[in-house]
Amino acid sequence: MNLPFILDVSIGLIFIYLILSLLASEIQELLATVFQWRAEHLRKSIELFLTGNATDAEQEKILRLANQIYANPLINSLNQQATGVIANLPRRFTWTVASAYRSLANTQPDKKQTVFNNEQVGDSRHSGPSYIPSNVFASSLIETLGIPTIEQSLSGTRLDSFKNQRLSEIENVIFKLQEQIGEGEEHEEFFNYLYQSYSEIQADFEQVVWNFQQNKFDLNNSISSMIVSFDRFIESLKVNLPQQETLSQPLQQLQFLKNNSLTSVESTISRTGLRPNVQEIAQAIKRGTDTYNELISRLQDKDNETLQRIESIIDKLPTSMANNIKDLAQRAEFNINNTQQGVSALRQEIEHNFDNSMERASGVYKRNAKGIALLLGLTIAAATNADAFYMVNRLSKDSALRDTITQNAGQIVLQNRDQLKYVDIDTLRSQTDEALNQIALPIGWGDANLQRQISWTSKQRRPFPIWRIITLLPGWIISGIAIAMGAPFWFDLLGKAVNVRNTGRPPASTTKTE
Are 231 and 257 in contact (CB under 8 A)? Predict the structure, then answer.
């Protein structure tokens, strides 16, 4: 028994396992499509990501939150479905089969399902995407939690309070000026102009707050407009103030107030906390926190619509999820360079945690898929009578079979020599199908194989010796494990074996190397 003979037998055995592995992968892919294993596993992984330390009482809230995230247009658009009656027939068939499978799998009637088409929590979807990018999930979660609305509302209430404080300070200066000048008729025209100017700056400030609350202005534009309006008010007062040396003090006070509270846009925003940081936003979605109390107290009797929307969001949010967001916000603070990056840092932290969670979920899915592949491998090995010991025996004794398999295997490797690492399974499947037209593999329940394996054929009058199946079990088990290794593994191994066979033994080196 020489090396070329062993290589030929090995190539034949590898080629057979490659064909059976392709069959197993096709069956497994069909099952995964019909039962939506990937989409269902992703949905359960997302629910687990959202659950955290949630109690059983919060489970229904978690399911509803997951439904809202899946209903987000960003994620909903990932689940493309065929249109038209005829095009939808295969999908409807898979929905029916998958629903029947889930009904049988759910043996406990009172157990909440965490799969699609769950009427108990208002989920009427039959399917979902098999993959969700982390940035899409993070954006969908932030929108579902209403974080942009909460951030806008919190900034709006603080801007309104900031506006009232500035107007109150200006009023105090005007009252002091009025006390200093007196209420004589000679100054009546000046005070009429002064109150008109104050009314204008008050109207400007009110308009700025309204524009911000209507999302027409951002904080930068709002503060910039207030600075311009304040400067215009001071300049107007300078021009129309009576020419008295003692009246310069009110101007100085106004200039001091302006320089102290409205120096520059970014300085004003960061110093006064008009833009909430990421931890404040996270605290606003949890009842009982200082930020939540601040937001609710300022919205009451002012913006009932926004208040109801925020309360509705918080009512649907499980306490465990609010705590998770708070923890993510604390970690996100380490990545923040300025207050503008608050929500962006939170989004990046959610993306990072989602990626980590999906990596663990992918590992679980691969282990489950490996178990399914092993069961399929054993089933295919038994169904095709792929006895490993018998196949080796046939290949070692039948030179014609061995040569035919080796020749066809070499051609397939040659055709895919540039894709040995990233092989196209569909192309490989079509090539092996063509090769099977020329090869009678040593598998199956035909008389020729059964005669050699258990000395029985269908032409014999004696019944099938069922007890002899025991002698085939070891070979089936080995073949089942081999089939579960997967087509890419066997194709890669086939390429290496063919290359070794074609290369032959390298000549001995005649030079010494250090």
Answer: no
Contact by Cβ (8 Å): 70, 124: no
Tell me how many domains the chain contains. Answer: 3
Nearest Cα to Cα of residue 160 among 313, 314, 303, 310: 303
Contacts with 27 (C-beta within 8 Å, 6 or more apart), sequence order:
376, 380
Looking at the fold, whether 20 and 41 belong to one and the same domain comes out as no
Q: Is the dihedral of CA 41, 42, 47, 50 positive or negative?
A: positive
- Report which of 191, 166, 164 is spatially closest to residue 177, judged by C-alpha positions: 191
Structural domain contains residue 514:
no
Radius of gyration of the chain (CA): 38
Does 345 reside within a domain? no
Per-residue pLDDT of 463-514, as tens digits, reads 877 888 899 999 999 999 999 999 889 988 988 888 887 765 444 444 433 3
Residues 16 and 91 grouped into a single domain? no
Domain range for 492 is 3-27+371-503
**C-beta neighbour count of 340 within 10 angstroms:** 15
The answer to whether residue 329 sits within a structural domain is no
Residue 122 sits in the same domain as residue 50 = yes
- Calpha distance 20→479 (Å, rounded): 9
Q: Please tell me the distance from the alpha carbon of residue 257 to that of residue 179, in angstroms, as a whole number.
A: 19
383: in domain = yes
Cα end-to-end span (Å), the chain: 36
Q: pTM of the predicted model, to two decimals?
A: 0.73
Average model confidence (pLDDT) across the chain: 80
Cα 330 from Cα 58, distance rounded (Å):
24
Span 384-407, average pLDDT: 90
